Amino acid sequence: MGIQVDMRVAELLCSRLCHDLVGPVGSVNHGIELLGEGMSDVMADATDMIAQSAEQAAARLEFYRVAFGLSGGGAGQMSFAEGRKLAERYIKQDVTLNWPVLADLPWQDQEKNVPKDVIKVILNLVMLGLECLPRNGTLSISQAVLPEGLGVALVVDGPKAHIKDEIKSAIAPDAREDSLTARTVQPYFMAKLAQDLGVDFEIFSPEPDCVQLAVIIPLEV
After folding, report:
1. Which residues contact 25 (CB under 8 A, 6 or more apart)?
2. Which residues, in sequence order, are CB contacts of 115 under 8 Å at separation 6+?
3. CB-based burial of residue 205 (10 Å sphere; 0-12 exposed, 13-18 middle, 19+ buried)?
């Protein structure tokens, strides 16, 4: 039988992993900048490729650190602008993210007073939305204050956008940990995160090539 850990332990392990890797990846970026002076065209092209890969790795680590970890502790705070930047740097180039700035939310866009768990839920929605999008497409986020809390909806539009059967199984209440794979562990994590935070979560396909994900996050989360 595999070792069993609770959500907090898994989040702390992710935080430690991302923390230990961010520094070396950042050093690679800095080293490439220093190497970029006085190079031949071939070397410059190779350096650009390495730099792009290192930048992508750094962006993913920062995304995972917030989406899966306990960076700064569960009571940490950040801004919607920071969360939006993490999502924009994470998604594929052929996917467009529409996450508008709204003035009528409990927190201003640039103010670092949004509970980190709110951003964490939204980033996990984005990641799950990408799993429903096999090709290019659009992720559109809308937010509104409801009597029950902060409502967040993510609409996924694109060719053949759909909810995979393995995702449905992973987010089901009776999902078994021993049936998870590397592709389904994130949907499972999203469902457990919602359960732990008291977040109402649903995912459905209202029409072909479209998937909608929605959550209601308690304002006191």
Report:
1. 54, 57, 58, 61
2. 75, 76, 77, 221
3. middle
Sign of CA dihedral 71, 74, 78, 84: positive
* Structure token pair of residue 120: 């964490």
Residue 92 has which token pair?
């594929």
* 3-state class (DSSP) for residue 54: helix
Q: What digits encode the pLDDT tens for the residues 29-61?
A: 676 666 666 666 666 776 777 777 778 888 888
Assigned token pair, 167: 């995702």
Tokens of 83: 């969360």
In the structure encoding, which two tokens stand for residue 145, read together?
């204050």
* Neighbouring C-beta atoms of residue 108, cutoff 10 Å: 15
Tokens 């866009």 locate to: 109
This prediction's pTM = 0.85
Distance CA 50, CA 39 (A): 14
The count of C-alpha atoms lying within 13 angstroms of the C-alpha of 132, restricted to the half-sphere facing its C-beta, is: 28
> Can you give the pLDDT at residue 89?
92
